[in-house]
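Backbone shape codes:
***
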Amino acid sequence: MKTINFMHVFSLFALLSAGLCERHHEDYKLKMDEALLIFHSELPYIVSVDYTSDYCYKCLYQPLARVGNGQNNISVVVSTQFTLTLKIARVDGKDTLCNLSQTFEEAGHYSLWMTQSGPVNDVKCSLTVDRSQNNVYLPLLAAFLILASIAVFWASLPYILRWSFLQRLKNHISCRGSQNSIDMDEANEHSVDKSKSKSSRLKSLDTFRGFSLTVMVFVNYGGGGYWFFHHAPWNGLTVADLVMPWFVFIIGTSVVLAFTSMHRKGVSRLQLLRKTTWRTIVLMLIGFCFMNYSPKDGYLSWSWLRIPGVLQRLGFTYFVLAMMQTFSPHRDIPLRIHYWWTLIQDLVLYWPEWIFIVLLETIWLCLTFYLPVPNCPTGYLGAGGIGDDGLYPNCTGGAAAYIDRWLFGDKIFWHPTCKVLYHTTEPFDPEGVLGTINSIVMGFLGMQAGKILLFYRKMNKHILARFLIWALILGISAAILSKCTRDEGFIPVNKNLWSLSFVTCMGCMSFVLLGVMYFVIDVKEWWGGQPFIYPGMNSIFVYVGHSLLGFYFPFSWEMRFQDSHWEQLFQNMWGTALWLFIAYLLYRKQFFLKI
């Protein structure tokens, strides 16, 4: 029996690389996210089997196998990450004999039987399971239970220690009498003094930053090999798509809080300008030099150098937001004055910034939907390749990619997330120039959160209410723009393009997360933010460190078991936990890397 190892699909996303294999299907060693599909044909003619992924928007069917002409039992390896639609048709005709849509399970063995039940073109297709599949989510469940147990133990530990201390204290008091009551009073006085000296630093913001960074480290290390811990192929959202907009939002909030504090300390605008410029240059140089280096690729080479990048975008976004705050007409939060617009003072008082942001968004909309792109439809937002019925194969990213190619030539990202699933051939950089505009808009939403925190200081109900209102407005906007669909909206949610609906959706989520953390950590003090607060206060160190050392032991090693998620999930969680521990040690040593 011949086995076709077709399209070693989707290093993450679709079907698997082409070639023939003389191995029996029962001996075939399947890897992660693979299943074996065997075609059994009882038809007197040759049929072609084509496939498409349901995650691929209006994609052309791709050839999978030919069955018949003496080869009636053909095996192919298929992806288990997305639902696949199979189309069986006669080679000598155009009629489709049958269609089948199926989500295959990892390591499962399936048989597709094609039998003739009547006239020549009356074919019955049935799918059976030959071997039970693995439970692909069992490693995640085990990891969740372990982490939940650690969290419960850590949360219970102070109460256990306190109960033990009180028991010993009672025994001690019974022995020493009234002298210990004086000691108790002194201990209470010390605890009151300690509470009075509590830091005014916003722990929820550091925790939010650290949580985002922890998720980023985990997904950058591989996310256990699960597709939803990798970036979406084009439209839609995965866990990996959430992290960077959270960071940008946090930058906006931090700019408002930090610059307001420095203004109160008497720091001049010239000093702020120098500090902002220096920090921007350092961030962009780190992104341009260090992040372009990898032990897999060797020394820096101009032939593959990527000019845009994550830190480059974060640095430029920070610079624009910092300039807005530096030259704002209200560098400090003014007193609340009772006018008819009192409820929206935190918006009205900053009208020049709003005009600037509206102009920026207008530029993004005009360039995205009205800039002529050679050989492409105006306003195209698709992935190109085999998508959109294959009509625009070289139009990946539309105006965004065209602007980047015009500015940088071929010095942009050659392996976009849509490359494997959509079979694209054009480069596209998700950190390109046009998307930076909406990155600034995302940071501006974070600035609004910072102004709310300052404007309604010590008015926690007002802060939480404002956060909720912003979340509702942005969430409804995202729903309208996307029509609550992945691909059919006016402006689909797309991290690659940093579309407007993506920004409003992520803004909604950011306000909700920051609001919840603010309530739990800073208002109720139910949680101190551990362990996320530690990397949150050393974010540059952890980000650069995990990027440079991620391929070295002990953060990773060469895996021996490639056929399941167990080892990769353990390795990625281990690497992430090591960075949390390193951040904790630096926190204990009071070492914080600042730029």
Q: What stands out?
A: Strands lie at 3-4, 20-21, 34-41, 47-53, 62-67, 73-79, 84-90, 96-102, 109-116, 123-131. Confidence is low (pLDDT under 50) at residues 1-27, 177-198. The chain has three domains: 3-131, 138-180, 205-588. Residues 138-176 form the longest helix (39 residues).
